[in-house]
Amino acid sequence: METLQNPRTTIELGTGALAAEDIVAVARHGAAVTLAAEAVTAMTASRTVIEELAADDKPHYGVSTGFGALAVKQIVPEQRRQLQRSLIRSHAASSGAEVDTEVVRALMLNRLSTLATGRTGVRPQVALAYAGLLNAGITPVVGEYGSLGCSGDLAPLSHCALALMGEGEVRTADGERVPAAAALAAAGLEPLELQEKEGLALINGTDGMLGMLTLAIADLHLLLSTADLAAAMSVEGLLGSDAVFAADLQALRPQPGQAESAANIRAVLAGSALIEEQKTGGFTRVQDAYSLRCVPSVHGAARSTLQHAENVAECERASAIDNPVVTLDGRLESNGNFHGAPVGYVLDFLAVAVADIASMSERRTDRFLDRSRSHGLNAFLAFDPGVDSGHMIAQYTQAGIVSELKRLAVPASVDSIPSSAMQEDHVSMGWAAGLKLRRAIDGLTRVLAIEVLTAARALDMRDGGVSTSRSAPAVTAVRAALREVVPGPGPDRYLAPEIEACRVAVADGSLLAAADSVLDTPLL
């Protein structure tokens, strides 16, 4: 996900909102960017406003004053370019592990999109310089600590602005870490000298947390469908009932998302001989456990949460966030739109949903391994129980991840530490919420992979393998795809590579694609 591909498409930025898929294309797949003529016109017009204000003798925040708690100091004209340089240098103060390339590229694109609205007052040259960095595959090095999610993602955005100035460190398109000046020179780009207002305009936005939210939404669409698939495989592998997923039963509780999850499970289980055998062979269990029976309620709630997050992200992508802003009628006005609360809340909300989906997945996996609850399977799905341990420790790995996901679900956005001499006395911590959601999504991917791996092993042990499968066609297709990268049941093997192979197959969508290949319509 972090390797940039050669750009296959070009995203044009106008004065309107970016689409979510455009952010994913640029951030994750290296698509190129260009500025529409309307954006250049809008930026030129608002720059005229800034230049007129810079020429008068009144203090204007961000143009002829200091910043934050230092806004009371008026800056003389001959020091204003130094003011902008000093702002960027001092604010490029991140620390910690390097942030993923796709996050930084998403951050840069979102900031460029705001510049293109013409509401920030920067020259078109600034936006063109940002586009040049993205198109050259130059990614500023940003540490994970430094943003409080208010007054913009200040430190991360400052590192990006620093690279525009030819300072700091960057990653080249091939991943080499080099000085920014060297990377700009190699790409034929000139360092940018910032003028009035431009340094501030480059760092005052929710761009990083919005980028992480947009990427997370894309990942969760795949993972929630995969969670439905994994749950269906577990229902089949544990000889459960599909009756509870009937459309009329689900309609009695018309929660958004629940119907979609139930429809997915019905589609995956359609045509399952294993399920039908339970209906005609003396089936005596009146009810399945909650982790099987209640899947649509839980997965559906996560889907509804995701829809809410998409609504917030859509509004944020349509926003022109800066402080101060140049209004459509030519005023320069201070505001508080840079506060990250709207984005921070949903980043935290998604982390709660992710933890719960993973927790339910782990419970289904555990049922396969307990001989008293697996309905005829070997203890721990071991080939020779006692000699072999089967998937015993795979479930331990799941449990360890789920425990961490519960800790990651503690919201960052309820915390606030005042800064800037109490000028910035309430902050969102949205950047931190985004980083922990990314870790949570990685954990969910691994938990689902272990459930799929375990369910496939259980089904192979029930019916002898794919060639004699009594599974539903969609489940058989997934089992066959998995067996291309992971062998079937046998004596204990080195298990970690098999878990990783299944994780990759979940993350790249190949297992979901295998199910979709035999269904009339793709899973929702």
Describe the protein's architecture and organization.
The chain is mostly helical and 524 residues long. The chain is built from 20 helices and 9 strands. It has helices spanning 20-29, 37-55, 80-91, 101-116, 124-136, 154-164, 180-186, 198-201, 207-237, 247-251, 258-269, 273-280, 290-293, 295-317, 341-369, 392-408, 430-463, 473-483, 496-507, 510-516, and strands at residues 10-13, 32-35, 95-98, 139-140, 143-145, 169-171, 177-179, 325-326, 332-333. The strands form 4 sheets. The chain has a 3-stranded antiparallel β-sheet with strand order 4-6-7. Strands 1-2 form a two-stranded parallel ribbon. Strand 1 (10-13), helix 1 (20-29) and strand 2 form a beta-alpha-beta unit. The radius of gyration is 26 Å and the shape is elongated.
Average pLDDT taken over every residue: 94
| Helical content band | 40-55%
Major sheet details: 3 strands, antiparallel
Stretches where pLDDT is under 50 for at least 5 consecutive residues are: 1-7
Strand content of the residues, in percent? 5-15%
Total count of strands? 9
Strand order of the largest sheet: 4-6-7
Entry keywords:
524 residues, mainly alpha, 3-stranded antiparallel sheet, 20 helices
Topology:
Blueprint lengths: L9 E4 L6 H10 L2 E4 L1 H19 L24 H12 L3 E4 L2 H16 L7 H13 L2 E2 L2 E3 L8 H11 L4 E3 L5 E3 H7 L11 H4 L5 H31 L9 H5 L6 H12 L3 H8 L9 H4 L1 H23 L7 E2 L5 E2 L7 H29 L22 H17 L21 H34 L9 H11 L12 H12 L2 H7 L8
Parallel strand pairs: 1-2
Antiparallel strand pairs: 3-5, 4-6, 6-7, 8-9
Helix pairs in contact: 1-4, 1-9, 3-6, 4-5, 4-9, 9-11, 9-14, 9-15, 9-17, 11-14, 14-15, 15-16, 15-17, 16-17, 17-19, 18-20
